[in-house]
Amino acid sequence: MWNNSFLFKNIPSIVFLFKKSLLLIVPAFLLFLFSCKEPNTIGLEIQPPNDKPNVAICDTSKVDVYIVKEDSLRTDHLSSNLLGSYNDQIFGITTAGFYSQFRLPTTGISFGNFPTIDSVVLAFKYSGFYGDTITPLTFHAYELTESMNHDSTYFSNKTLANDGNDLVNITMVPKIIDSVNVGGIKTSPHLRLKLNNTLGQKILNATADQLSDNTKFLEFFKGLYISTDQITGNNTGTILYLSQVSSSFLSGITLYYRNITDTLKHNYTIAVDYDCINYNYFNHNYTNATDTLKSMQTSHTPKYVGNLAYIQAMAGIKTKIIFPNIMEWAKIKNIAINQAELLISVEGNNTFIDKYAPSSQLALVGIDSTGKTYFLKDQTGSDNFFGGTYDATAKQYKFNISRHVQYLIQNKIKQFGMYMLTYGAGVTANRTVFKAGQNPAGKIKLSIIYTKL
Fold first, then answer.
1. How far apart are the first and last CA of the chain?
2. Quick one: pLDDT at residue 5?
3. What is the Rg, in whole angstroms, of the alpha carbon atoms belonging to the chain?
4. Where are the alpha helices (DSSP H) in 254-331?
5. Quick check: 217 and 104 in contact, CB under 8 A?
6. pTM, rounded to two decimals
7. How far apart (Å, rounded) are the C-alpha atoms in residues 40 and 56?
8. Hey, where are the domains in the chain?
9. What is the rounded distance in angstroms from the CA atom of residue 239 to the CA atom of residue 128?
10. Torsions phi, psi of 353, nearest 5?
11. Distance CA 180, CA 190 (A)
12. CA distances from 231 to 55, 99, 139, 311 (A)
């Protein structure tokens, strides 16, 4: 399983020698090499002619691109819950919900004599969104009948049993940037859903033993599944990013109640804290997506693409990349590979790029003979050096994979391809369309800088 957080490290220069004598027996590489060009290198004009390095760039190496449907993604213990739905003409309908526990901030609580519920409010602080801010969403919440436990891992396609009774069923436009008045106090923007009073009364009626500690409370109240309906309107919708833990106790279930002991109105928040288990559940429906993605609705087989390729967060689509002619470099001696960059250009036309922005960062990992992923040799330094960050001006991503290419050429590792996917795919909803191998307007390139010795 791919791990969404990792460090990238600086790479040393790559030096690898080739013999000129083999050039005559590698016609395929000759054709490839003649299309390469010498760069305009600053400072070369002041060097003696005999001392000039014979540096050249080649960006014509073949790059095969495939798209692959993700099976699932581990989404427990992440920084955000995702909730909502969007529908765009390229990727179809994407929907996110989540499962969450709630814990007593103080154990041994007593609600007094004959407590009666006034209202129950479910709240989560916003930490961001993806999509538009004008489409109404229909929210639902169901009480779980199946427990979560710390000994288990939870993936984005895992469902848990619930009692089937909808505690919300409300349609509204989320006010993502507006402050909220709570009891006369202006608070930061957050999602606020009024739940059915039956849940609140159930908790108020809990026994002293059930409220004595959180182990017993979680057996009594296992948590909620929170979801929205699928969006059906074309190119509309949003995915909300919700903070799991809020220092101001905005994230949790607040009970507003009275009891016969006094005339006061009380409130008590069952919070989402760091010990709560919660995880995101994702669903992708490609039935009305672009033709290339329609075929991925039920298939996990890599599909070779033409002009465009696709990447989607939330266990959606990833891209597989292979360099079919990379070993041609190994047949040539007397050259040194100085740098290898993978260049990916985003398709900016007809993709609603303003509303559905490309991923701010992509990840690139190798694939071994068993299909498992591994960190590339270049992922050993700063993000700036390894790359993957989106350049909005150039509409491009770059990866520095010099060491990886060197290891391929030296046959230190076998080529089974690489996966390119959204960085932080469990907590973001971005999707990316980029130009692929047959695109006349630009395509994914492997650019190699080398020195003729």
1. 43
2. 39
3. 27
4. 291-294
5. yes
6. 0.85
7. 9
8. 20-71+300-452, 80-285
9. 9
10. -65, -25
11. 7
12. 54, 20, 12, 21
Taking only the tens place, the pLDDT of each residue in 86-133 is 999 899 999 999 999 999 998 889 998 899 999 999 999 999 999 998
Query: Rounded to whole angstroms, how far apart are CA atoms 238 and 133?
Result: 7
Q: How many Cβ atoms are within 10 Å of 265's Cβ, its own excluded?
A: 11
The answer for residues whose C-beta is within 8 angstroms of residue 36's C-beta and 6 or more apart is: 56, 57, 58, 59, 60
Residue reference for tokens 């991925």: 296
Q: Are 313 and 91 in contact (CB under 8 A)?
A: no
Provide the token pair at 72.
Answer: 């699932």
The β-bridge partners of 2 are none
Strand blocks (E) in 313-415: 317-322, 335-345, 362-367, 373-374, 396-400
Reading the block at residue 240, the tokens are 């909300």
Both tokens assigned to 290: 């672009």
DSSP code for 213: S
| Nearest-angstrom CA–CA distance, 412 and 324 | 17
Identify the pLDDT of residue 174: 93
Quote the CA–CA distance of 319 and 215 in Å, as a whole number: 43
User: What's the pLDDT at 52?
Assistant: 55
* 312-364 per-position pLDDT tens digit: 999 999 999 999 998 888 787 677 779 999 999 998 766 667 789 999 999 99
CB 317 within 8 A of CB 73: no
pLDDT score, position 227: 98
- Partnered with residue 180 across adjacent β-strands are 187
| pLDDT score at 33 | 42
Two tokens, residue 127: 């930490």
pLDDT at 411: 87
3 state DSSP class of 27: helix
The residues of the chain scoring below 50 in pLDDT are 1-35, 38-49
Note whether 397 and 362 are within 8 A (CB). Answer: yes
> Nearest 5 degrees, angle CA 349-CA 353-CA 356?
140
Return the DSSP state at 355.
T
Q: Name residues whose C-beta falls within 8 Å of residue 78's C-beta, 6 or more positions apart in sequence.
A: 4, 244, 279, 280, 426, 427
In 3D, which of 85, 82, 214, 96 has the Cα closest to residue 148?
Answer: 214
The answer to whether 58 touches 445, Cβ cutoff 8 Å, is no
Between CA 299 and CA 71 the distance in angstroms is 10
